[in-house]
Amino acid sequence: MMAKIVMVAEITHIQRNENHLRACHGHRQFAANRSMLMTVLLAIAMSLLCLVPKLSDAHKASDSYLSLAVDSQDHTKINGQWDIALRDLDLVMALDQNGDGVIDWGEVRARHADIAAYATRSLQLKSDNAICPWQVTEHLIDRHTDGAYAVMKLRAVCPSAVDALTVHYSLLFDVDAQHRGLLKLVFPDGKQEEHGQENSEKVETPAADLARDEPASSNTISAVFPADNATQTFADSHISIGSQLATYIADGIKHIAIGFDHILFLVVLLLPAVLVREGVGNDRRWVPVAGMNTAFWNVLKIVTAFTIAHSITLSLAALDVVRLPSRLVESLIAASVLATALDNVWPFLPRKRWLVAFAFGLVHGFGFASVLADLNLPNSSLLLSLLGFNIGVEIGQVALVVVMIPLAYVTRNTKLYPQVALRAGSVVIASISVGWLLERSLNLQLMPF
């Protein structure tokens, strides 16, 4: 009888323990769900705080494309073409006169004189410290992947033969600090007597570039004019393969340095590199890696996959094999940042992070390609430019890894890393990417960068 009582008591005790375990599991699951919900709500709240639109002066950071070529027959003359987005010109001179949201050819034609005057104030050319007066010889319209552009054919005359050219560029800097000018400058070597005639026959295709059809012996220089480097000087000397490569490497580094979306995508990709995801379902969580060896291979696989992917699409786009609309590409890049950031706090993407890096890297490659495509580099140096630009991008990526990963590894075992660096950091980046996605897909000005 006593044995039965003891057995009943033990069974009751076991049942109580099981009920207690179920209750604890249920509590943990509820806590996890609540934490997940709070994270999502926090992301939404922060996104709303970021989104303070000014629709009346909505625009996005932009580029203009300036191509200059010293005349092969008369080295005192410079022929050029300048492409400026109509949406940018509308900011400073209100091209859309009827306010219907569409800038038509008639509205642009009516303001040709104003456009030329504004451009003249924003560009100065000097040779041997003497000003080279320039004028607009023809107005055209061209369509780039991100919209319609006003195209001006230019002609400048210098006091003497141009051996070195100083360019001062200040277009739009007073209204858009993120604007930059992309310059391509061609110095002939004196052997292209037919070059001027070739260019003059292509006025019906305003997108045709002055340097794209240059003979291999021409010296082509490319440069970027940001607001903090508005005056630059370029010399006509033989441009070695090494110096050209260095130019394109610098362009790649600059593109990463000012490409906040690419930087933040790499950050959200690499934040979990010093952690490993364990568990299933709602119990999936990040825990610190055991050693640096694991973190190193995580980083190597992620960066390698991203590099291979963006190199593929960068090459396809730069070679004009595949070309996608700029707004679509930029919107997809913002969406990739958002998805990757949310996956850090609410797992839904593949466990293998390198697969995510490769898939989204294909999209980012089209974004990288916009620089090379818009510079319209000559065929003779296109492969060299692809190599140099890719090297520059990789240098930028490696610099980010070198700064970020050691700090992440040292702090991975603290409670702050998974909660603050990974979770809160990803929420902040997700909030920023929501703003990017809305402004790029709807053509609004929401973000300060």
Describe the protein:
The N and C termini lie far apart (80 Å). Strand 1 (63-70) and strand 2 form a beta hairpin. This protein has helices spanning 2-50, 86-93, 105-109, 112-122, 195-200, 241-258, 260-270, 292-318, 326-345, 353-375, 382-411, 416-442, and strands at residues 63-70, 77-85, 123-127, 130-131, 134-144, 147-157, 164-169, 180-187, 219-225, 231-235, 275-278, 285-288. Helix 7 packs across helix 11 (382-411), helix 9 (326-345) runs antiparallel to helix 10 (353-375) and helix 9 (326-345) runs antiparallel to helix 12 (416-442). The protein has 449 residues and is of the alpha+beta class. The chain is built from 12 helices and 12 strands.
Offer a quick outline of the entry.
Helix content is 52%, strand content 18%. The protein contains 12 helices and 12 strands. The radius of gyration is 28 Å and the shape is elongated.
Feature tags:
disordered N terminus; alpha+beta; 12 helices; six-stranded mixed beta sheet; single chain
Determine the strand fraction and express it as a percent band. 15-25%
Biggest sheet details = 6 strands, mixed
Major sheet: arrangement of strands: 5-6-2-1-8-9
What would you call the shape?
Answer: elongated
DSSP summary: helix tally: 12
Number of strands: 12
Uncertain segments of ≥5 residues (pLDDT<50)? Answer: 1-11, 21-60, 191-217
Helical amount among residues, as a percent range? 40-55%
Task: Give the terminus-to-terminus CA distance.
Answer: 80 Å
Order of helices and strands: HEEHHHEEEEEEHEEHHEEHHHHH
Average pLDDT: 78
